[in-house]
Amino acid sequence: MNANPVDDIGLRARKKRARADAIVDAAQRLVLAHGFDAVTVEAIAEAAGISPRTFFNYFESKDDAVLGQGSFDLDAGFRGEFVAGGPTGRLTADLEVLAAALLGAVAGSDPHAPARVLELMQAEPRLLAHHFAWFERHKNQVEDLFTERHACRPLPTDPATCTMVVFVLVRAALDDWDAGGRQGDVTEHLPAALAKIAAVVNA
Amino acid sequence: MNANPVDDIGLRARKKRARADAIVDAAQRLVLAHGFDAVTVEAIAEAAGISPRTFFNYFESKDDAVLGQGSFDLDAGFRGEFVAGGPTGRLTADLEVLAAALLGAVAGSDPHAPARVLELMQAEPRLLAHHFAWFERHKNQVEDLFTERHACRPLPTDPATCTMVVFVLVRAALDDWDAGGRQGDVTEHLPAALAKIAAVVNA
DNA sequence: CTGCAAGTTTGCACCAAGTGCAATGTTGCG
DNA sequence: CGCAACATTGCACTTGGTGCAAACTTGCAG
């Protein structure tokens, strides 16, 4: 799921990627068309041109395939900058940058990914839960970032709280973008989202 | 799941409640002892003294039973007060009261419930997904509260953002309580949790 | 107390998700 | 070509979960 479109590491690997993409594509199309429960793994496998058994060689569960969720990794350069107290030095501003980086990592190479995933999640609340759980799995990655940063530029509070704020920020921006007709870039909504949150806790 | 220990509405109903409690208890004990995947519904049913089929008359899924997550309902009196702009009139203070009400509704009659659920989620990340699903299911209930309140005492921002803040507050308080050795009442940690969140967004 | 109606439990048959295993194909490479 | 590594597949099996209808419990009216 990282942004390396041209990994020339063998023909075999490329085929594998193509298959995975085909599965995700088939899964998403079918689920959007007929609803999650009405689509069986068998149907997805058939649409992707593989056997049902092979489906599970690629994804651990139907949910994973539908959300197309591999693992994500934050850009190493950005990570270094953030833990060193950057990029701007003001925590709130850096929070926004971090949230943007997260959104980028989620989207992967496909700019349409957030739209499709949002649509899916609206149609199938079940998947929202899965999506959050996936976030939770990567929570440590974000929390570590804050812990390291704390050493050189002390945080106003503990890393766990900072992490939660970042995730809320991501979610709020996504909601905002969705409410605004999904125009333009999700990250543009980050400042407004942060302002809204601040308005509540400072009321 | 509401806090009415002595609902004298029929003997039949009492029996039903007792069974449900027995199922949750059996499920939690077994899962904490052997791990989620090693415990079958059949085993839980047997431990609770019912047939496997009856298990599904009480809970929609194994996950629901393990988390003991029925539906919750906020106290009607409190709801009325909150939408009327109460109880204190200061939004942040009222947010804390709302969060406390949520924690109460979740815990139900058993004060140990939050501890067990936290422990379960730490041991079985799988359950996180379900926990979030539950959150999402009840999000509307809380959001409606804010929408109604807005009519008589305008909010600084939209109901959706307020709702997210409340849930983060709940979560943060729970974390805090957990970090402090799970002493005393979770709700005591709410003010500190709110302060921490404010510290981040105001940095 | 009797008997009926409504609600509950349970067994049974069934579908779908997911796993382990072993056979069968494919692919890359010396 | 031929072999070793890897990928696909079929098959049998476990488990979660549902629909249905029969049996049983319980509350209540007469």
UniProtKB/TrEMBL annotation, chains A, B:
Pfam families with a match to the protein in the record: TetR_N
Organism: Isoptericola halotolerans
PROSITE patterns: HTH_TETR_1 (PS01081), HTH_TETR_2 (PS50977)
Annotated DNA-binding residue span(s): 40-59
Keywords tagged on the record: DNA-binding, Transcription, Transcription regulation
Protein name per UniProt: TetR family transcriptional regulator
Lineage, opening ranks: Bacteria, Bacillati, Actinomycetota, Actinomycetes, Micrococcales
Domain HTH tetR-type: 17-77
